[in-house]
């Protein structure tokens, strides 16, 4: 029993460290100008990458100097600093990378497309991990179908391979991506000036386009926005379903279904492949039926998976079909929830990293508490699974998918009733005196009359430069 509590405690420590880091990193990422001419998002991504590189390998290795007679609390204390550093690095890379999306595109459909591509490359990274794990389990197989301390070298080698590949693609990202400076982004969320330059032919206006003053939403102002909490609840529920199902799928396969341990590589591989394929149709489906209905479709697939697991306690090979359902559903709700977050931010990119950090804060705290509760409720008192844990993981998979899906459905209902929008309260206005001189001269009446009204562009044809998009996706390989 103690070993399960220790494992849950380490996961909780990591989630709490991540939860604390994400809003702080988001705030500092918005506030800091970056290192020299290096963009502020790329600067924080680099800090996070270095933190991951110096800590990740130690987490998946046996503690240095420990043996079979070393007390559990010694290993516990040993791993905590590495986990904290890793989770800080993870928060820095994730928040800075996500914050680039609203700065690269302003069109809502383009945000969905870019988020879907980002998820597709995330899936490629995950597929690579499970493919390498599958090969290692076959090359370094010890003839035992159960996981145990004898498999430590496999996970150590897997961690080192993943670290090397991630470092390589991070180098590609930092060398290939150009982040625009804040002063070059203009006053319309970074896309207004470039969008006007891209208009050609009959679409080019004869006179300079007047630009209304915009209201800059600082981090404290987000806490007064109801839509902020709607999206946070939806994102937290989404991450609970995705993360907990991925965490406990291995135990469900081995302990509940009694499948060989190589299934912990093949089944997640099926999940990620199905999610990868579904990401390519996300944009047309969203254009056809909208974000909310697309999210609801993904939620339905997860509910079907939960019902299937509940009724079929001896799936055997049918688990491949269930895994495909879970993969498509998870990909759909994750992409759409991130797109809704980008929609919430809109042109308020100056505080976008804080929003992503706050969303991730709710996710990490909820996941950490959930894992700790699940581990504390574990019925077995030994490392080897006892008869009670067969049904334990069965119901864990049902609850973390179907149970949490009900909460997500309630959050989605609130967005159906009260759509995502920013209400003009507690904002700092950018008035005529703060706008460039050319803007003041071109539309003084419009600027003065709308200085207290929050405006956001309804649509934009601005698309991210192809080179930047490619390297943004490459960064997901780490």
Provide a brief overview of the structure.
InterPro entries: MFS_2. Helix content is 69%, strand content 1%. It is mostly helical and 478 residues long.
Describe this structure in words.
Keywords: Membrane, Signal, Transmembrane, Transmembrane helix. InterPro entries: MFS_2 (IPR039672). 69% of the residues lie in helices and 1% in strands. The chain has a single domain, classed as MFS general substrate transporter like domains (Growth Hormone, Chain: A, Up-down Bundle). Residues 184-214 and 426-464 have low confidence and may be disordered. It has helices at 2-31, 40-59, 72-104, 108-139, 152-176, 192-198, 219-222, 226-256, 263-279, 282-289, 291-311, 319-345, 352-376, 387-417, 437-442, 444-449, 466-474, and strands spanning 215-216, 428-429.
Rg measurement, Å: 24 Å
Largest sheet: 2 strands, antiparallel
CATH topology: Growth Hormone, Chain: A
Number of helices: 17
What is the count of β-strands? Answer: 2
Q: Name the CATH superfamily classification.
A: MFS general substrate transporter like domains
Number of domains: 1
Helix content: 55-70%
Q: What is the architecture at the second tier of CATH?
A: Up-down Bundle
Protein name: Major facilitator superfamily domain-containing protein 12
Keywords: Membrane, Signal, Transmembrane, Transmembrane helix
Region (Disordered): 181-209
GO biological process, one term: carbohydrate transport
């Amino acid at each position: 029993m103690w070993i399960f509590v220790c494992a849950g405690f380490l996961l909780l420590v990591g989630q709490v460290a991540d939860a604390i880091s994400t809003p702080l990193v988001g705030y500092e990422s918005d506030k800091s100008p970056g290192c020299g001419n290096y963009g502020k998002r790329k600067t924080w991504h680099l800090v996070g990458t270095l933190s991951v590189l110096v800590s990740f390998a130690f987490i998946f290795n046996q503690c240095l100097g420990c043996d079979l007679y070393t007390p559990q609390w010694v290993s516990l204390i040993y791993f905590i600093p590495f986990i904290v550093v890793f989770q800080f690095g993870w928060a820095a890379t994730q928040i800075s990378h996500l914050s680039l999306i609203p700065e690269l595109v302003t069109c809502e459909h383009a945000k969905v497309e870019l988020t879907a591509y980002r998820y597709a490359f995330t899936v490629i990274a995950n597929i690579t991990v499970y493919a390498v794990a599958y090969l290692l389990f076959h090359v370094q197989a010890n003839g035992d179908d159960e996981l145990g301390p004898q498999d430590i070298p496999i996970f150590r080698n897997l961690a080192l391979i993943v670290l090397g590949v991630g470092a390589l693609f991070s180098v590609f990202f930092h060398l290939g991506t150009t982040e625009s400076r804040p002063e070059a982004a203009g006053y319309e969320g970074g896309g207004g000036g470039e969008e006007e330059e891209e208009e050609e032919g009959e679409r080019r206006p004869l006179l300079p386009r007047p630009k209304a003053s915009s209201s800059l939403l600082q981090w404290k102002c987000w806490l007064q926005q109801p839509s902020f909490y709607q999206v946070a609840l939806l994102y937290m529920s989404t991450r609970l379903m995705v993360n907990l199902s991925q965490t406990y799928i291995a135990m469900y396969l081995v302990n509940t279904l009694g499948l060989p341990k190589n299934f912990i590589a093949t089944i997640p591989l099926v999940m990620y492949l199905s999610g990868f394929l579904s990401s390519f149709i996300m944009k047309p489906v969203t254009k056809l039926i909208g974000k909310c209905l697309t999210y609801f479709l993904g939620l339905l697939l997860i509910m079907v998976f939960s019902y299937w697991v509940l009724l079929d306690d001896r799936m055997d090979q049918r688990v491949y079909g269930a895994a495909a359902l879970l993969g498509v559903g998870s990909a759909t709700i994750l992409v759409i929830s991130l797109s809704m977050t980008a929609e919430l931010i809109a042109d308020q990119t100056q505080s976008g990293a804080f929003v992503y950090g706050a969303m991730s804060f709710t996710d990490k705290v909820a996941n950490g508490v959930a894992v700790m509760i699940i581990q504390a409720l574990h019925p077995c008192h030994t490392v080897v699974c006892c008869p009670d844990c067969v049904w334990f993981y069965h119901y864990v998979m049902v609850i973390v998918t179907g149970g949490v899906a009900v909460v997500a459905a309630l959050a989605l209902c609130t967005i159906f009733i009260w759509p995502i929008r920013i209400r003009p309260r507690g904002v700092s206005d950018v008035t005529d005196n703060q706008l460039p001189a050319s803007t003041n001269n071109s539309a003084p009446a419009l600027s003065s009359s709308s200085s207290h009204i929050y405006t956001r562009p309804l649509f934009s044809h601005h698309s991210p430069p192809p080179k930047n998009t490619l390297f943004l996706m490459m960064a997901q390989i780490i």
